[in-house]
Write a structure and sequence with these properties.
Layout (H helix, E strand, L loop, with lengths): L2 H12 L2 H5 L1 H7 L3 H4 L4 H5 L28 H6 L3 H7 L3 H8 L7 H5 L19 H9 L2 H4 L1 H4 L5 H6 L2 H7 L8 H5 L19 H5 L24 E2 L2 E2 H37 L1
Antiparallel strand pairs: 1-2
The structure holds heme C (HEC) (6 copies).
The site of one heme C has 24 residues, from helix 10, helix 13 and helix 15.
Length: 276
């Protein structure tokens, strides 16, 4: 569609009911790929957009009006037009967890936005490759949302990724470098232990070996531990493990030492009493 065509269409739409009352959503919507494609509020919400002028009233929201979809039904709204992507997404851990009631698991609008959805090629899109690490980190690096003790997921995924060659090269303007979704997929994101997952140990050779990445080079696969493999390596000794052992030793030592002190304290009181 030409720019002129888009402007003509926008004039028509702005005169109709929904556009009269919901300026906040309209402002966002006017920037979106959907607006450019002549989609209207009613495609997602139902209602009657064909009322204009003095007749505009809340009754515009009566004909087939479905309101704002509940979080669990957002996929239904999008699948009207994106059924293929939705089908793929519904195989993912995000959908499976959401369906189970983990309300913070990612749905379409968490990654793409609601009214201001942009094509992922647009640098301002949250799903643009350059923005993907920050997008995923919004949940995966958030201790409160991800409380490891509850979901059992590590919250250092962005931190460990930041230490990687992939990220450093991406920051210095490198193109075609692996970001979260290159290894975890955009929509079919799965658990490491799922044989259908791109990060399932047996599938790593093909995930890392994608054309343009590391075809035929299995040496790049660091024992299947991409994030862990990025912990500091010193003279081929795993410093992270060393630090862990050091802390365990410290805690044990402190425990014995404190118990010892308490023991001495008790015996000393006992001694005083005996002398009296
Ligand atoms: C005369 C003004 C008016 C018109 C016209 C109007 N709305 Fe509304 N709309 C409101 C008000 C008031 C509310 C309730 C307060 C709120 O949620 O902002 C509302 C609420 C909504 C909600 C949220 C409902 C929910 O489930 O939480 C949606 C979605 C919505 N409108 C969409 C539309 C669409 C689509 C149209 C066009 C077909 C439209 N509105 C036309 C005034 C209007
Ligand atoms: C591509 C689908 C889509 C289109 C087009 C769309 N909306 Fe929405 N809208 C949604 C979804 C999904 C939600 C629920 C957001 C949530 O719960 O996070 C929503 C929520 C709303 C709400 C509730 C308040 C809010 O912002 O969450 C209003 C009001 C609303 N939309 C009005 C509109 C109006 C007016 C238009 C047209 C200018 C429009 N929408 C176009 C998908 C759409
Ligand atoms: C009424 C049909 C319709 C609905 C409903 C709809 N979309 Fe779209 N969407 C489109 C069309 C048409 C395009 C433009 C397709 C293209 O450029 O190839 C588009 C484009 C997109 C894009 C940009 C794709 C790209 O090229 O990067 C995203 C992301 C997107 N939609 C997400 C959503 C989400 C999320 C929802 C639900 C909240 C939704 N859409 C609901 C029709 C729809
Ligand atoms: C809105 C929050 C949110 C966003 C955004 C999000 N995720 Fe998730 N993700 C979750 C939740 C919640 C789970 C499910 C945790 C569980 O119970 O196993 C999950 C699970 C996962 C898992 C499986 C982990 C496991 O041990 O089960 C991977 C891999 C994953 N997400 C990758 C990503 C990637 C890559 C992105 C960015 C493209 C992303 N996520 C964006 C919330 C989010
Ligand atoms: C965890 C984040 C995440 C979730 C959840 C998600 N997407 Fe995406 N989506 C992406 C990313 C990242 C891209 C592609 C970026 C790229 O490769 O340029 C993408 C691409 C797209 C595209 C462009 C065309 C294509 O086939 O890749 C559409 C359309 C789309 N998503 C719609 C949806 C819909 C509809 C849902 C919900 C059913 C959804 N997305 C859920 C992250 C997500
Ligand atoms: C180069 C490929 C690659 C990149 C880039 C990457 N990951 Fe991973 N990710 C993996 C592999 C392989 C695993 C499983 C083994 C491990 O933990 O190292 C994994 C594990 C995970 C897990 C735990 C999954 C589970 O089932 O336990 C989450 C969550 C995750 N990554 C999120 C992210 C996020 C968020 C980003 C971006 C900030 C990212 N990953 C970037 C390859 C990658």
């Amino acid at each position: 569609m030409t720019a002129a065509g888009a402007v003509a269409a926008s004039g028509e739409r702005e005169d109709t009911s929904c556009f009269q009352c919901h300026s906040a959503q309209v402002q966002e919507f006017a920037k979106s790929v959907h607006y450019d494609r002549n989609i209207s509020c009613t495609d997602c919400h139902g209602g009657d957009p064909h009322i204009s002028g003095a007749a505009v009233s809340v009754s515009a929201m009566s004909t087939n009006f479905t309101g704002a979809p509940a979080r669990i039904n957002i996929t239904e709204t999008c699948s009207k037009c994106h059924s293929e992507v939705t089908g793929v997404y519904k195989e993912s851990i995000h959908w499976k967890e959401l369906e189970k009631g983990v309300t913070i698991a990612a749905t379409c609008t968490d990654c793409h936005g609601v009214h201001g959805i942009l094509p992922s090629t647009n640098p301002n899109s949250s799903a643009n490759l350059e923005n993907v690490p920050v997008l995923c980190a919004g949940c995966h690096e958030n201790q409160t949302k991800m409380s490891a003790w509850y979901y059992g997921i590590k919250t250092d995924r962005f931190d460990t990724y930041k230490k990687s060659y992939h990220y450093k090269a991406l920051l210095s303007g490198g193109k075609g470098l692996a970001t979260c979704t290159d290894c975890h997929e955009n929509h079919n994101t799965r658990n490491e232990s799922d044989p259908g997952s791109a990060i399932y140990a047996a599938n790593l050779a093909s995930t890392c070996g994608k054309s343009g990445c590391h075809p035929g080079n299995s040496a790049v696969i660091y024992g299947g531990k991409v994030h862990e493999g990025q912990s500091v390596q010193l003279l081929s000794i795993d410093t992270k493990a060393l630090v862990t052992y050091f802390y365990i030793a410290m805690i044990l030592f402190e425990l014995v030492f404190t118990l010892g002190l308490v023991g001495l304290d008790i015996t000393s009181k006992f001694d005083i009493r005996r002398r009296r």
